[in-house]
Each structure stands twice: as structure tokens, then as C-alpha cells.
TrEMBL record:
Organism: candidate division WWE3 bacterium
The name this protein goes by in its record: UDP-glucose 6-dehydrogenase
Gene Ontology terms, MF aspect: NAD binding; oxidoreductase activity, acting on the CH-OH group of donors, NAD or NADP as acceptor
Pfam families listed in its UniProt record: UDPG_MGDP_dh_N (PF03721)
UniProt domain UDP-glucose/GDP-mannose dehydrogenase N-terminal: residue ranges: 1-56
Entry-linked SUPFAM superfamilies: NAD(P)-binding Rossmann-fold domains (SSF51735)
InterPro entries attached to this UniProt entry: NAD(P)-bd_dom_sf, UDP-Glc/GDP-Man_DH_N
Ranges in coiled-coil conformation: none
Length: 57
């Protein structure tokens, strides 16, 4: 997992095993039975330190 947070890998693996968490790149598969949808995109910092939200808007 490319995110460092102590204990995160164990939490993610446990919730995947219990069918409470899944990941997909397919929009149709991702939303068909979803109660909550997270959309993740890059928001790199600009030279001023502000987040680049161009992929969001």
C-alpha cells in the first residue's frame, strides 16, 4: 500500500476479508451496490503550497 500510516495495512486487509471494503477502477462496478463512494485523484502541491485541484474540478 503506497500510504504510510501505522496499522493501516492491517485495517484494510481485515475489512477486505470481511467484505466491507473493496477497490476498483470500473465506475459501473464501483457504484452499483455502493452506499459510499470515494473518488481519489492526485492533488499535488503547487510552489505556494496550495493543493492543485484541477483533477477535481
Amino acid at each position: 500500500m503506497p500510504i504510510y500510516e501505522p496499522g493501516l495495512s492491517e485495517i484494510v486487509l481485515r475489512n477486505i476479508a470481511q467484505n466491507r471494503l473493496s477497490f476498483t477502477t470500473s465506475i459501473a462496478d464501483g457504484i452499483k451496490d455502493a452506499e459510499i463512494v470515494f473518488i481519489c485523484v492526485g492533488t499535488p502541491q503547487s510552489d505556494t503550497g496550495a493543493a492543485d485541484l484541477s483533477q477535481v474540478w
